[in-house]
Write a structure and sequence with these properties.
single chain, 3 helices
Amino acid sequence: MLIALLAQSVGDARIVNYSGIVRGATQKLVKEELNGQRDDALILRLDGIIDNLQTGRGGIPAQQELQRRVSDRAGRAEKACGAT
């Protein structure tokens, strides 16, 4: 039981860490775009991390409930930004 709780905590920590990476990289990307600079490599990296957070693929072990909430919020954010 203890090992299962530790494994869950590690998974949660990874999700929080990757979410922070997305937040920081998004801020950087917006700043670059406002200065007229495109950063396609960063966009691709963010797309990959967000996809991994939504699906649980790519070594980010998302719990089903947390994964569902992340996916729902990401979907709302995409809709608000006009992404398809």
